[in-house]
Amino acid sequence: TPHADLHADPRTGAAVKAADRAHVFHSWSAQGLIDPLAVAGAEGSYFWDYDGNRYLDFTSGLVYTNVGYQHPKIVAAIQEQAGKLATFAPAFAVEARSEAARLIAERTPGDLDKIFFTNGGAEAVENAIRMARLHTGRPKVLSAYRSYHGGTATAINVTGDPRRWPSDSGTAGVVHFWGPFLYRSPFYSSTEQEECARALTHLEDTIAFEGPGTIAAVVLETIPGTAGIMPPPPGYLAGVREICDRYGIVFVLDEVMAGFGRTGAWFAADHYDVVPDLLTFAKGVNSGYVPLGGVAISGAIAETFETRPYPGGLTYSGHPLACAAAVATIDAMAEENVVEHAARIGETVLGPGLRELAERHPSVGEVRGLGAFWALDLVRDRATREPLVPYNASGEANAPMAAFAAACKKNGLWPFVNMNRTHAVPACNITEAEAKEGLAALDTALAAADEHT
Ligand code: PMP
User: Fold this and answer.
1) Of 184, 234, 380, 384, which sits most exposed with the smallest number of CB within 10 A?
2) Residues enclosing ligand 1, CB less than 6 A?
């Protein structure tokens, strides 16, 4: 039976929690202030604890279980690969690895036909930057303030989100600029066209004053995710492409979160008809069943390393278990039309449903997104757009968002909450009924946020 684990022994749950408390050091947390849920099992869009509470996962883990939990084809492929060849070092041609690379290259836009495998997104960003620096012989990297690119040394410096602050070593050569974001426009624009034009002028001015000949790369999330799911205005990414071409700058699109179906396309770049020189991916490539990420590389950049060695690598690059999971994920997504489904559920259920909530709840300032990739920007006052909680809020100041999250959980929904936003980022194959169940839980929980308007 699918949810037999719902009746798992709560005493085991208590033991799991006690060992976690004693020995697991958690990410991004004050260790003494957290109380992680002990998870007994998961399937599809749901997971459950040892006390019989079941949650609809509107976070997809960390926005990565694009085909949900325990997809039978992926589980079987990992088991089969484990039986055949559980691991093998990167310097060999291995069937699962070459097949995963072929399937990924077939789907990435343009001539991004060579794949460098990593274990996750941050390592992909680190290597994309290294490739851009070696390809151009230039040191600097430009990235957006409203961005997240990973938690390792260079990736966290390139990140613009305030999570950068405690770790920021001020890495030489990382320069931040403002990307477009009409709702909280850094350029005081009132239309998409204005925002696009001003953001492009700002980028070009930044390049002019930093020195075009010193800039290796512009790194952007195609649709910034963690920082607020902000689809760029039409023409922006094409404009950045043109600017990069003019100055010989490598254009890196980070699709770690937006890639592999999340936006209702294989890659978010497909919506904008733009082809970067390097594209980073992770998460959805195999729904995170085994850690995997990578960089898809253009012909011109790959050519740089035809006769000159690429000075970078990872012991587990292209791990056979992770690659077998990627092959099975991509096959399953194609067979089950998951990408088309995500586009449709966004257009017909999530988008209209979230907009309808915004009409009734004064705390919702803006609804943004597409596919299975949506944000609600929560505000204290719709007229001023003052965020419901201050940016980088913590502790007491974040009580309204904590109350909202608690209300979601009480209603069987596991929410994504960051600063003043909640993101609706379920599995890309979420059913219509499940999506509606999530919207109903959000409806109830938003009342808790409304109290602070
Ligand atoms: N880039 C983007 C756009 C991301 O969303 C993330 C993770 N949220 C990363 C990079 C880092 O990926 P990882 O945590 O796998 O290192």
Assistant:
1) 384
2) 62, 120-122, 125, 148-150, 221, 225-226, 254, 256-257, 282, 293
